Fold:
Amino acid sequence: MAVLIDAMILLLLAGVLAYALMVDRRVRRLMETLRELQPAINAYSAAVDRSEESVRGLSSAARGLEETETRPAAKPAAPAAKTSPRAGDKAARTARARAQAAGVTRVTGKTELVQGFFDSVRERDQ
Structure:
């Protein structure tokens, strides 16, 4: 009976080793693919950063234009001007709150994050 239990343990151990080798090969293949994709990922990350800067610039320019358009119109009607900016601010806050989904964290410096990932992978390989 003890021999049977020992044989079962050896078979299970051999199965675990075979599975570990299979996982190791897949992880190595994944890491090679990531190294090949590194230039493309870095370029994409830099492009995303540039596009975010462009969007911020366009947004601030649009806000500046909106403010210059609303200032001359707000002077003649003082009571209406007091209620409309508040409504506009409230609408803007509501729009920003909707844009930020629950559980989503805004990440800045994505390029450094991506580069840090590849640096840590290189350190592990050495």
User: Anything to note?
Assistant: The mean pLDDT is 79. DSSP finds three helices and no strands in the chain. Helices lie at 2-74, 78-99, 110-125. The radius of gyration is 29 Å.
